[in-house]
Structures
1.
Amino acid sequence: MQLYLPIAEMSVDVFLLFLLGGGIGFLSGLFGVGGGFLLTPLLIFVGVPPAVAVATQANQVIAASVSGAISHWRRGNVDIRMGLVLLAGGFVGSSAGVGLYTLLRAVGQLDLVIALSYVFFLGTVGALMLMESLRVILRKWRAGVPSRRKLHIHTWIHGLPFKLRFRTSKLYISAVVPFVIGALVGILAAILGTGGGFLMLPAMIYLLGMPTVMAVGTSLFQIVFVAANVTMLQSIHNQTVDVFLALVLIVGGVIGAPLGSKLAGRLPGEQLRALLAMIVFGVSLKLLVDLVRTPSDLYLLLPPVAQ
Amino acid sequence: MRARALGLALALVGALMVTVAPPPARAQALVADLSNHLVAITTGFTGAEILLFGAVEGPGDVVVTVRGPARDEAVRRKVRVAGLWMNGAEVRFSGVPVFYAMFSSRPPADIVTEELAEIHQIGADNLSLRSDSRRSPEEIDTFRAALIRAKERQGLYQPDAGRLIFLGQRLFRANLVFPGNVPTGAYRVEVLLIRDGAVVSAQTTPLYISQAGISADVYEFAHRQAALYGLLAIVLAVGSGWIAGAVFRKV
């Protein structure tokens, strides 16, 4: 069945989009990350204009994160204070990000920046995760005993000013760090349309030293609000949010996600994380190859932007 | 005074006689029309097919061009910087039709001279695109060719002439096909009767492609009340995510 998307101004196969949304929902349920970093490139591949793909993605991320955020909230896994500091950074970052997005589009380098950011962030995060989970798997395999981690290791991060006590996460650290993390993820949310979970979670766990469950709950909490901010700003500045597209993706996603989390309960955690790391790393490698390989047509048509 | 009134009356009668007079001995050489002058894009739109039909008086070939509304386009040439391909030199074109297709009763090269093809913009290569770039004409031509290639990849320019079929000596028909991603706006369908390398008769027919129904409403809403639209999109996403979460917790 075909559906005409009024904002993207094109006709698409509903089932294809539905499967896409469902598949991404399944992965996000399986790994506990948004999966936006996979969906945006896939939507562009299907023929959706990149501007519409990125903006609509932000709208879809709200729906994908809201139910998770609520259930984590119920279980007390949201560090409100940390969430608010991240959110403050997120609002500043995403507002600046939408401005940057408009500017990059005018200069004609938006696609390059998107691809490069993906290569850099996905590559770094993927490689780090892969190393970490391989180390844990190897250690377990050799020693046969579960590894123990210190509550946290003292680094330069703990010497920064504006220290705040985050009781729920049992942390006493500078508010500057979560603010900067929030801002950085906010910029990415605006430019790449992802929730930024793939970047936020490792940063919260490894950089801030938050407990994993708390990091997941808190990041979901703040992603909902940052994605809402991006949706609003993209609607106002670029009119690129397609509600029809978002709705089909959302319906697919909400069906796929519980199936994924059901499967996640049956798989061992370390192997699961290694698998996610490989997917993340693979996507970044593919994007890098596309940037380096000589394109089939050296010329390309860009949407005209008023100068 | 009276003479003047009489003159006016005579002039009026004369004018009337001209309008009701039978057509001149040489009938109109070309008549053509479309089966539909409005393509409505609704939520189920997958593309449209419109029948162009007409009749000619006397021998000759018929060429039809279909042009969408003109827009500005920017073409970029990729350059390799530090091993990465990025967007380099840019040439802007104005008067670029968003859609172009042509139909002819015989291969266009057999019918029209290059000069005529250029005048009447027969074939995508002969579109009159303007550029204020200060680059050499040869360079602008490569950018121009790239623009047409890109449009062909999008399915919005047809690289080859479509078939226009003659039914007997006088009647002709052609199927104008528009893809699912056809842009909206006012289109021009130009029908030319060509005899011995010269245009004998021509007719231009308008065609409107526009969104209709719910998709038109959504488009209007998103552009007219952007903030309210954004708010509604957020509410929709929060609501559906919430409901889905509640439903699956019970299951």
2.
Amino acid sequence: MAEFHTEVFQNEFLSEGATDVHAIVTVTSTGAGTAGAASATGTVAEIVMVDTSGSMQGPNIDAAKYAAQVAVDQIADGTWFAIIGGSHVAQRAFPYPNAPVAIVQMEPGARREAKRAISLMSPTGGTAMSTWLRLADQVFSQVPQAKQRHAILLTDGKNESEPREELSKAIRDVTGRFQCDARGVGARWEVAELREIASALLGTVDLIANPSDIAEDFRQLVAASMSKGVADAELRVWAPQGAQVLFVRRVAPTVEDLSTRRTEVNPLTGAYPTGAWGDEARDYHVAIRVPSKPVGSEQLAARVQIAVGGEVLTSALVKARWSDDSALTARINPEVAHYTGQAELASAIQEGLAAKAAGDEATATVKLGRAVQLAQETGNEEATSRLRRVVDIDDEEKGTVRLKRDAAKLDEMALDTASTKTTRVRR
Amino acid sequence: MDHVVSVACGSCGTVAQDGSKFCEQCGAPLTAPVAVAVPPPAPSTRSCRACGGTIAADGYCQDCGTPAATERDHWSEAPSASLGGVCDRGIRHEKNEDAMALGLAGDAPVLVVCDGVSSVPDSDIASLAAARAARDVLVQGISVPSGDTTRVAAWSALLVRAADAANNAIATAVGDLAERHDPPSCTFVAAVVDGPNVVAGWLGDSRVYWLPDAGDPIQLSSDDSGANELMALGLSRAKAEASAQAHAITRWLGADAPDIVPRTAPTVAQGPGWVLVCSDGLWNYCSEASAVAELVRTSQEVAGPAPEKIAAELVRWANEQGGADNITAALHRIEVVHGTATVDTVHS
């Protein structure tokens, strides 16, 4: 049985008249077990979506097919699974399109046949990812007993065969139905498109520069999926009467603003989706605005809870205490400062690259300069080294940079996709 | 029924199990326990003081997030329909160093309030021990026959004994802390109401007011305080009470008390009214007897006739004014005055 624990990092002291309470809540799950163990009972489903558009012709399709076969090897027996080939239309590769069922449970025979089916996939046509997502949703819906649903989507190109809005609409329609990790191979896909998919479907987005690395990535993704023993947990945030939830943000392992994902539990409590959990730790940044109280008063500003199947498993208390002791109120909690910086770092990188793409070099220089500064301040060395491939740094502390004239498209995309990855505070 | 003498924590009032060395509730040492005849009053409800919502298991209101008061931080007592009080931490202080103990000596209401000296650590232990010990002496009553003119004198003498018992209880409760350079200490004020007679005794600046429905309200006690000494020197009350030394009390209970014989003062109720015993957490916001009378009257309009409800309203009001100190208000209603003491004497 999985156990969740919470830990709160905050400075609860507020100066007179102050209203905003910030806290980092670390949620740790232990004993989550593995989905593999649960899959024997048929509660886990996995779908792999491989881009089979014409652009995949060559090493990409060969690598993708091999990776899909590696994924199939990783899927535990008993897990419901299907393979989808996607171009401007989506087609089930396995179970075969003429099969009487759309999804089957893994067993040695099915594994052998699925790998054969994958080897027969061939690239042709355009790219309309909305059709892929909708087909995956349809297939998953065949197994309502499978509560834990995970998909992998791999593409090498832009979503060029349909209006952008079609993709967004499909994403909205399937949100909450399954989780999806999105992967782009090469430098011709659109980071924003895959980020939108992964973000809504509680997955990750990443760039695979070299097709030969797809297999290892798929292996890891499926292994991670199989190690998640809690199908669906929600983060609940209670705030007192008269208070306002300013934002709820996951800040580790990656930055994801959950504020708009709120569903109401009761008028004072909102639930935010977190997807499936293995044995892991995630950090959330919660900001609440409460009416100010007299110096000396104490106030509970938030209860941050994890609920599974409607049952609250753990509850963390975020407090506010008004004080006239500036030694107490002026202190900035290191965790809050760190993640505030990391979230701003993600925005600075994304906005800087967007400005650069739009030809606004002045804004790009300022934003990426700020990113360099923040990466240094928050000790995010990975971000610094990715930034170095895109800008020349004159002064790291002041954030003075020049845009590299010859920055590789791949390096920019790598910087963009990794922008939301955070480092943890050293405690 | 067996007569059980329970041991209560001097810090938070929780009744300890026999043989315990530390309080299960607050962890305070129980090496020098306070003996009480009955467990301390349970908090009246688990509803929120601020909004009336329900207190969750985590100790905060489910609706407004206000922390639940601990038993030591906030409690009320109502030994009879005409007697009740509330003792509250206020807002600015970390601890509630005020204490209150109410009881009945036969029909005679007993009201005791002690205000722990906040500049001295552990004074919350001293005040609770003192208030309960004094109350326990006073509820034994006097043996002078009803109607005897010496009853008031007997009550006055009992108040002196009560202060002495309170001082001893402090010594027992604080143990070795009494040796400290600044030993735990507190004020003492008590009132007993015997028919139309109201007798007050005090050390320090906690007060007794007599607030008749008709006629002039009075402050029955007279503060042993810097402010009063300044007024004796000719300063106005407002100026004296605003001065830096205003709250320096000149007499108190505790190991370093210069003199533990309370001054006493009686009065005779000529008609219905309220006896109010309170700490400076209340009267700091409302000092003049006439203003106090008006405040009690308006509080009664809000809260209804029950004394502990009116006391709760007084506490709420003082918190609204800033709650700069601990607040205690205890009230007794004198409804019907069966003649005056003089008339009693004639009839007996």
